[in-house]
């Protein structure tokens, strides 16, 4: 099968916009991308921006595609799947991909029939700028071709990692899926701290985001442990040591552990609820 299968996104929200934006930039042909959403505004924007085909009818886009990406909120998934099952006759001939947090593959067999082939992907919004981090786990029916195809599609918008269990995908989701929000929260707090000391807000934002980018690039280009990279900035008796000490006293490790655990727990709850 071609590198570019026809792919339909059900739901045109933040995550679909990020993935499709990144896919189009990476050269995925727009005439192979279909998107549905109940309201027309996001669809109009996406078709104007990328030239993709859109519809307010889920079944219409799903029927045209070889791959269906379920990209609605977990609480809507059961109803959306029930309608697709009723209206699209050959779901078993398509690859079903879901990006929803929590919901287990087993549930999709109940919703769509146990003859479907499935991959669960946990992406994140930096896919929009080609710097996504996506986790993937396939069921036993997905073929090698399916797995190669979906890995390549998501590699087009960033890095990918296969995980072997859905429990691991919950962890990946809690770190990488949710992670941009944690980094934005932290970046905004640094910006605020500079502004409170009298620094210009726009300039504070620029220095925070450039520093975040620089730190991430250094980490990516280095074999050193992250703690060693931190040490390299921390001159003995210098200013960084004073700042780092404040974070350590506030137990930054404990805070991250609690945050990731809380997100994993919510993924597990959603697995039960939806
Ligand atoms: N936003 C993120 O950073 C990430 C989100 N996810 C997952 O992606 C999925 C979507 O999340 P977001 O894009 O953030 O949500 P969103 O709320 O931005 O988008 C959901 C879209 O689905 C549409 N929708 C509602 N009912 C529908 C229906 N019956 N049929 C078709 N579309 C319908 C909504 O109008 C909306 O445009 C969720 O399941 C979430 O767990 C996964 C990883 C990261
Ligand atoms: O908040 C959520 O549930 C989704 C999953 C990861 C990021 N957003």
TrEMBL record:
Instruction: Please provide, in alphabetical order, the Gene Ontology terms of the cellular component aspect for this entry.
Output: cytoplasm
Q: Where is the Pyrroline-5-carboxylate reductase dimerisation domain?
A: 166-270
Q: Which Pfam families match?
A: F420_oxidored, P5CR_dimer
- Where does it live in the cell? Cytoplasm
Domain Pyrroline-5-carboxylate reductase catalytic N-terminal, by residue range, is 6-102
Q: Give the reaction(s) catalysed.
A: L-proline + NADP(+) = (S)-1-pyrroline-5-carboxylate + NADPH + 2 H(+); L-proline + NAD(+) = (S)-1-pyrroline-5-carboxylate + NADH + 2 H(+)
Q: Which residue windows are transmembrane per the record?
A: none
Domain of life, per lineage: Bacteria
User: To which protein family does this belong?
Assistant: Belongs to the pyrroline-5-carboxylate reductase family.
Report the NCBIfam families cross-referenced here: proC
Give the record's GO biological process terms: L-proline biosynthetic process
State the function annotated in the UniProt record: Catalyzes the reduction of 1-pyrroline-5-carboxylate (PCA) to L-proline.
Write out the pathway annotation from the protein's UniProt entry: Amino-acid biosynthesis; L-proline biosynthesis; L-proline from L-glutamate 5-semialdehyde: step 1/1
**GO molecular function terms listed in the Swiss-Prot or TrEMBL record:** pyrroline-5-carboxylate reductase activity
- The enzyme's main class, written as a single word, is oxidoreductase
Checking InterPro entries in the record gives: 6-PGluconate_DH-like_C_sf, NAD(P)-bd_dom_sf, P5C_Rdtase_cat_N, P5CR_dimer, Pyrroline-COOH_reductase
Which HAMAP family does the UniProt entry name for this protein?
P5C_reductase
Q: Per UniProt, where does NADPH bind?
A: 58
Please report the name of this protein according to its UniProt entry.
Pyrroline-5-carboxylate reductase
Q: Enumerate the UniProt keywords alphabetically.
A: Amino-acid biosynthesis, Cytoplasm, NADP, Oxidoreductase, Proline biosynthesis
Specify which residues bind NADP(+) according to the UniProt entry for this protein: 10-15, 71-74
The UniProt entry lists the main location of this chain as: cytoplasm
């Amino acid at each position: 099968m071609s590198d570019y299968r026809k792919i339909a996104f059900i739901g045109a929200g933040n995550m679909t916009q990020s993935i499709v934006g990144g896919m189009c930039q990476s050269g995925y042909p727009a005439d192979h991308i279909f998107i549905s959403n109940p309201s027309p505004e996001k669809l109009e924007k996406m078709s104007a921006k990328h030239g993709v085909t859109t519809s307010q009818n889920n079944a219409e886009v799903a029927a045209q595609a070889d791959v269906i990406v379920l990209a609605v909120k977990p609480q809507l998934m059961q109803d959306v799947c029930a309608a697709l099952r009723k209206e699209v006759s050959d779901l078993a001939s398509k690859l079903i991909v879901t990006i929803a947090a929590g919901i287990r593959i087993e549930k999709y067999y109940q919703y769509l029939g146990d003859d479907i082939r499935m991959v669960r992907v946990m992406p994140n919004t930096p896919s929009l700028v080609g710097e996504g981090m996506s986790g993937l786990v396939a069921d036993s029916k997905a073929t090698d071709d399916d797995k190669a195809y979906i890995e390549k599609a998501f590699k087009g918008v960033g890095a990918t990692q296969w995980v072997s269990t859905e429990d691991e995908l919950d962890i990946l989701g809690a770190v990488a899926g949710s992670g941009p929000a944690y980094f934005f929260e932290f970046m905004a707090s640094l910006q605020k701290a500079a502004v409170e000391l009298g620094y210009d807000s726009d300039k504070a934002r620029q220095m925070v985001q450039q520093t975040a980018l620089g730190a991430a690039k250094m980490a990516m280009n280095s074999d050193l442990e992250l703690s060693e990279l931190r040490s390299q900035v921390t001159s003995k008796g210098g200013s960084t040591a004073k700042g780092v000490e404040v974070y350590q006293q506030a137990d930054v490790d404990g805070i991250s552990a609690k945050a990731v655990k809380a997100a994993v727990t919510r993924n597990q709850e959603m697995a039960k609820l939806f």
